[in-house]
Amino acid sequence: MNALLLLGGHSDIGGELAARLCSGRPVVLAARRADSLADVAARLRAAGATAVHTLAFEAADLASHRELVERAQELAGGVSTAVLAFGILGDQARAEKDEAHAAEIATIDYTSQVSMLTVLADTMPHGEIVAFSSIAGWRARRANYVYGSTKAGLDAFCQGLADRLHGTPLRLITARPGFVIGSMTQGMKPAPMSVTPAQVADAVAAEIRTGKGSATLWIPRRLRLLAWVMKLVPRPVWRRMPR
């Protein structure tokens, strides 16, 4: 019962993290376009995965979450590491006028995460669950408040879930990276203290291997200082801050 489940098989961060954790164990990749995961699967096999299975995963279909996790456990003989790497950035300008798009962002980036985290916490007897918050949720900005609000809610949920799991064989690792330079943010100007998917994966993998109990990771660590400063910026100044 040592398989790795990656929810969001096309994720840059998820792929990097899976490559660091897959050696000597089976992997289950779950994604909306499960038939296009061949390259990811090949990379993980090359990194030492004993087997790679793929499953179709629609995050917004909440009713399918428990069945998907059960299927992953059946395929791989049990899951001891689950990584929630699915999500969308969305289009802030569109979301301000299109309530369906705003709800789509909220559903995938918050509601679906809450649903899947609840299923995993209920079905995994031990190991670790990895969830991804963001500096964007620390204080929502005018430029991306729809996305930022989902990360704020997810972060709060994760802190409570981590407390619930305290003292059990199952732990939750919540990563709070800064601006991640990857496919999701392609074409956007990097913010201060930006990180790459590889840097995020390195930090999470190190915590999995050496840490104990649930943890919240600022990536990079000095981002914690910037977050403290962000809370002190006056509201009139803050509302003009870029993404």
Report the uncertain regions.
none
User: Roughly how many Å apart are the termini?
Assistant: 42 Å
Overall helicity: 40-55%
CATH third-tier fold name: Rossmann fold
Roughly what is the average pLDDT, rounded to an integer? Answer: 93
Q: How many H/I helices?
A: 9
Keywords: Oxidoreductase
Protein name: Putative oxidoreductase
EC number: 1.-.-.-
GO molecular function: oxidoreductase activity
Describe this structure in words.
The protein has about 240 residues and is α/β, with parallel strands linked by helices. The chain has one domain (about 5-240): Rossmann fold. Helices cover about 45% and strands about 15% of the residues. It has helices at about 10-20, 40-45, 65-75, 90-95, 100-125, 145-165, 195-210, 225-230, 235-240; strands at about 5, 25-30, 50-55, 80-85, 125-130, 170-175, 215-220. Strand 2, helix 2 and strand 3 (about 50-55) form a beta-alpha-beta unit. The longest helix has 25 residues, at about 100-125. The N and C termini lie far apart (about 40 Å). About 40% of the residues are buried.
